[in-house]
Write a structure and sequence with these properties.
Layout lengths: L2 H10 L3 H17 L3 H28 L20 H9 L1 H4 L4 E5 L5 H14 L4 E5 H14 L2 H9 L3 E7 L6 H14 L4 E6 L13 H11 L4 E5 L4 H17 L1
Length: 254
């Protein structure tokens, strides 16, 4: 079989990873006198690598991250209460394998959303499905889904992924109906799939967000004992960035 025919067959069979390196592999096999097994292994590995890359790209796109944060970009020089051990625990995804929820609590600007999305990105890279959604967007989509008759379909979007990230919990109070929806989502996901909440409001003060005491107790019960909680304190990243940006100008004036 000629190399041209082989390439055409790979294209027809959608073996794009093999096809992309085929000519080089043939050349390397000839020059380095590979065995048939070595040649086939190289082609198979190229195909496996490209399929993994395509799958990961699809997972990242489906996650709908606001920013593609990575733990490798975390600024350890900033004054934060988070330690390298904390980041290592999040990076390991052991909590995801255990289906544990994660609470990232802290004032605005301390990096809660960055860390949540970095955890989500790490999950995608490990082959897990993720959905990132701000609580404001969730509530807007929830209201629209109820009026348009697509509630069950929308609810399924929040039940299917291995990880759902609710960003900015507590931006406004939840109605009893909204709180019940959240409780049902947590009820289905508890012990099986993980949820990350970023919030300025510690769990013990969620009565400020969820006025209904019965639903509040049910939500707390699903989070309080199982959640991996990080209370993040420190200077706002925006303040640090503003200071860094102003330094050159100040130095120039001096």
């Amino acid at each position: 079989m000629s190399t041209a025919v082989a390439r055409n067959l790979m294209a027809e069979m959608k073996l794009f990873g093999m096809s992309s390196i085929f000519d080089k592999a043939v050349m390397d096999a000839t020059h380095q006198q590979w065995s048939c097994t070595e040649f086939i292994n190289v082609l198979l590995q190229a195909e496996a690598d490209q399929r993994t890359e395509r799958k990961t790209g699809g997972l990242i796109k489906a996650a709908k991250f606001a920013k593609k944060s990575r733990f490798e970009d975390f600024d350890f020089t900033a004054q934060r209460s988070l330690t390298k051990t904390d980041i290592k625990d999040l990076y390991s995804l052991e909590w995801l394998r255990q289906g544990r929820p994660v609470l990232l609590v802290g004032q605005t600007g301390v990096g809660k959303s960055f860390i949540a999305q970095a955890a989500g990105m790490q999950a995608c890279l490990r082959g897990h499905s993720v959905l990132f959604i701000t609580v404001t967007d969730w509530l807007e989509h929830l209201a629209l889904a109820r009026t348009s008759g697509t509630y069950l379909r929308f609810r399924e979007r929040l039940l299917r992924p291995a990880l759902v990230i609710f960003d900015n919990m507590g931006m406004r109070k939840l109605t009893a109906s909204e709180a019940q929806d959240l409780c049902e989502i947590l009820d289905v996901r508890t012990g099986d799939k993980s949820v990350i909440f970023t919030t300025q409001t510690p769990l013990q003060h969620w009565s400020e967000v969820i006025p209904d005491p019965v639903i509040l107790d049910a939500i707390r019960d699903r989070l309080e004992h199982a959640a991996l909680t990080f209370n993040i304190t420190g200077e706002s990243y925006r303040e640090v960035l503003a200071r860094h940006l102003s330094t050159p100008a100040q130095n120039a004036e001096a």
